[in-house]
């Protein structure tokens, strides 16, 4: 019975979450169309709502730990579900994502992604994806945004091992900016390919920044070690 109740609450939460996306996106659209600050305001308002409604409807609390970057940096994050996107975007002042190219055509979402300077990449063509990513990153330099990339390229459930892709290393070497790794345990409560949303405390944690200047192999090894170790710790804490 408890599982059925939680399943029903999960469905209610998901439906209202997407309805809220439409309402917020349309409400802020006039401001966002003339000023990028309006687009960021819409994103932050929506993320706050998702976090609040998740706590109220399905009992899923959320916490952001660690020093949140406010300057122009690369944020390399573990990706387990849509909820880690929500938590990161709610925390940093000017989020800008490396995203899959198909999202450009998503109603409202694609338009807002363009307004904040997200970088669409074709994940099926490695060389083209790296070129698109580097060109997009270069265009956005100097705007004080936090460039968010998911080094594994897709959602990876807790406990599953997937290789880290070299794209994050190319960005780090080309831009010469610090990289802030981010760990999470949200996949325990918001599973991949499931409508069930579970109660508990989902966490994203901003870790110790990696300063610029490392070689790409050394950077990739350090990034993976920091993110995976911290994510395993958060998962153990959640369980």
Compact summary:
This protein has 239 residues and is of the alpha/beta class. Helices cover 50% and strands 15% of the residues. It is globular and about 55 Å long.
Which features does this protein show?
single chain, 239 residues, alpha/beta, Glycerol-3-phosphate (1)-acyltransferase, 7-stranded mixed sheet, 7 helices, 15% strand, globular
Descriptive report:
The chain has 7 helices and 7 strands; from the N terminus they run ααββαβαβαβαββα. With 239 residues, the protein is of the alpha/beta class. It has a single domain (61-238), classed as 3-Layer(aba) Sandwich (Glycerol-3-phosphate (1)-acyltransferase). 39% of the residues are buried.
List strands and helices in order, with pairings:
Layout: H1 2-34, H2 36-58, E1 60-65, E2 73-77, H3 82-91, E3 95-100, H4 109-115, E4 119-121, H5 126-139, E5 146-149, H6 167-175, E6 179-184, E7 200-206, H7 216-238
Parallel strand pairs: 1-7, 2-5, 2-6, 3-4, 3-5
Antiparallel strand pairs: 6-7
User: What structural class results from the helix and strand content?
Assistant: alpha/beta
Number of helical elements: 7
* Order of strands across the main sheet: 1-7-6-2-5-3-4
- The level-1 CATH class: Alpha Beta
Shape: globular
CATH topology term: Glycerol-3-phosphate (1)-acyltransferase
Let me know the number of strands: 7
> Percent range for helical residues?
40-55%
Order of helices and strands: HHEEHEHEHEHEEH
Largest sheet: 7 strands, mixed
The CATH architecture category equals 3-Layer(aba) Sandwich
* Terminus-to-terminus distance: 22 Å
How many structural domains? Answer: 1
Radius of gyration: 17 Å
| Poorly predicted tracts of residues | none
Beta-strand residue percentage: 15-25%
CATH superfamily: Glycerol-3-phosphate (1)-acyltransferase
- Whole-number mean pLDDT: 91
* Oligomer designation: single chain
């Amino acid at each position: 019975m408890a599982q059925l109740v939680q399943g029903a609450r999960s469905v209610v939460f998901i439906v209202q979450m997407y309805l809220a996306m439409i309402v917020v996106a349309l409400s802020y659209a006039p401001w966002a169309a003339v000023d990028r600050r309006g687009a960021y305001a819409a994103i932050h308002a929506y993320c706050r709502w998702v976090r609040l409604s998740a706590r109220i409807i399905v009992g899923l609390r959320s916490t952001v730990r660690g020093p949140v970057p406010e300057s122009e940096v690369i944020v390399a994050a573990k990706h387990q579900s849509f909820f880690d996107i929500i938590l990161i975007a709610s925390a940093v002042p000017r989020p800008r994502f490396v995203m899959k190219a198909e999202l450009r055509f998503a109603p409202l979402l694609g338009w807002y992604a363009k307004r904040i300077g997200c970088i669409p990449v074709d994940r099926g063509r490695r060389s083209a994806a790296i070129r698109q990513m580097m060109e997009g990153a270069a265009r956005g330099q100097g705007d004080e945004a936090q460039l968010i990339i998911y080094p594994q390229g897709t959602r990876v459930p807790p406990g599953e091992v997937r290789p880290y892709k070299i794209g994050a290393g190319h960005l780090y070497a080309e831009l010469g900016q610090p990289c802030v790794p981010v760990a999470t345990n949200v996949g325990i409560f918001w599973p991949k390919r499931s409508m069930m949303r579970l109660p508990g405390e989902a966490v994203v944690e901003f870790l110790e920044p990696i300063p610029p200047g490392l070689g790409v192999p050394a950077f990739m090894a350090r990034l993976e070690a920091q993110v995976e170790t911290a994510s395993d710790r958060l998962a153990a804490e959640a369980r």
